[in-house]
């Protein structure tokens, strides 16, 4: 309620500044000259009609002060707004702005516009901070869940602590460490300073490594992940960033597939366009054409049907699209009678942005 009352207070000023001059000094000078001229004319008029000077002079001063006060409100109203906006921002509300006539070009108008630009930058920085927290929480879930499942299986005696199983745990731990480093660096990358560790790798091997922890965390949902990926396809890219892309797309397909159904991962090389095209299809569910663009926005959650997992933060697909764009690729939902089909198109060879 406090913030709402403060917001309403920011809009009560009917600002009509002195727009004839582009300098505050000229505006104040004109105001003083006008007030003095009016006071002089009024005093002369009253004295001419026989008023006493002891009455005419005080009355003239009151009128001059009133004129100065009324017209000065239009000059100083943005300053009062900036005070209230600063108080609101100190309380954590970065959405408030100073209302200013766009045709006003004096120092106060310039200051108000600069103040609004500063408020926008602070709002953007605060949003990035909140997004960072949400991204970290979302992105850490998959490797942590995989580690938890493997350790619980060993503790319950379901699996033995063989060198192979311990190596798998070590691999997930390393991926977790890399993921933390990546997420902590997210703000710098989103600010345009993203750096990619470009490597040449085999797509089939990369997808096998990406799917393995997802199969573990899928648990008792009994999904059948089928992979149709030729062994001879290779490409260039940052494997850590691309793993973010494919992990989120495949995990989304698993989450929105009924238990016991199939998720297909099909990849092929488009030699005409020099790209690698991967389709991730979860059979049964469909995404309406009107929703296909909105689901890639942050915090937009897809609808869960019967037998599918609900919940989520609404960040996975947004992160996937960002990772694809970082490589000069795209992610989109295409028409497919079989179900929801996410098509990932990435350039086979990395194109430097320099």
Largest sheet: 5 strands, mixed
CATH class label of the largest domain: Alpha Beta
Kindly report the average pLDDT value.
Answer: 78
Query: If classified by CATH, what would the architecture of the largest domain be?
Result: 2-Layer Sandwich
Quaternary: single chain
Rough outline: elongated
Please give the alpha-carbon distance between the first and last residues.
50 Å
- Looking at this structure, what is the CATH superfamily of the largest domain? Histidine kinase-like ATPase, C-terminal domain
What is the H/E string?
HHHHHHHEHEEHEEHEE
| Range of helix content | 40-55%
Question: Which class best fits the helix and strand makeup?
Answer: alpha+beta
Number of separate helices? 10
CATH topology heading of the largest domain: Heat Shock Protein 90
Give the total of domains: 3
Q: Which strand order does the major sheet show?
A: 2-4-5-7-6
* Share of β-strand residues: 5-15%
Number of strands: 7
**Regions with little confidence, pLDDT below 50 for 5+ residues:** 1-18
Output the radius of gyration.
Answer: 32 Å
């Amino acid at each position: 309620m406090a913030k709402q009352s403060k917001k309403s207070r920011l809009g009560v000023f009917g600002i009509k500044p002195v727009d004839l001059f582009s300098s505050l000094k000229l505006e104040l000078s004109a105001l003083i000259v006008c007030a003095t001229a009016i006071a002089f004319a009024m005093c002369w008029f009253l004295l001419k009609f026989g008023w006493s000077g002891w009455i005419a002079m005080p009355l003239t001063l009151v009128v001059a002060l009133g004129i100065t006060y009324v017209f000065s409100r239009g000059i100083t109203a943005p300053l009062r707004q900036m005070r209230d906006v600063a108080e609101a921002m100190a309380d954590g509300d970065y959405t408030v702005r100073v209302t200013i006539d766009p045709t006003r070009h004096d120092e106060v108008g310039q200051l108000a516009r600069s103040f609004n630009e500063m408020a926008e930058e602070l709002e953007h920085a605060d949003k990035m901070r909140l997004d960072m927290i949400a991204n970290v929480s979302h992105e850490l879930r998959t490797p942590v869940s995989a580690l938890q499942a493997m350790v619980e299986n060993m503790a319950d005696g379901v699996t033995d602590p063989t060198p192979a199983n311990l190596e798998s745990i070590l691999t997930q731990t390393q991926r977790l460490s890399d993921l933390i480093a990546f997420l902590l660096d997210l703000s710098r990358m989103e600010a345009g300073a993203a750096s990619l560790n470009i490597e040449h790798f085999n797509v089939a091997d990369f997808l096998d490594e990406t799917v393995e922890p997802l199969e573990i965390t899928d648990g008792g949902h009994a999904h059948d992940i089928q992979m149709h990926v030729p062994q001879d396809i290779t490409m260039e890219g940052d494997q850590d960033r691309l793993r973010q892309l494919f992990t989120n797309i495949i995990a989304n397909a698993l989450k929105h597939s009924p238990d016991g159904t199939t998720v297909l991962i099909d990849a092929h090389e488009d030699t005409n366009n020099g790209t690698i095209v991967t389709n991730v299809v979860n059979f049964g569910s469909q995404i309406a054409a009107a929703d296909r663009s909105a689901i890639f926005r942050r915090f937009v959650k897809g609808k869960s049907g019967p037998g599918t997992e609900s919940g989520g933060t609404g960040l996975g697909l947004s992160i996937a699209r960002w990772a694809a764009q970082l490589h000069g690729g795209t992610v989109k939902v295409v028409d497919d009678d079989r179900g929801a089909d996410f098509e990932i198109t990435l350039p086979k060879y990395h194109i430097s942005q320099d």
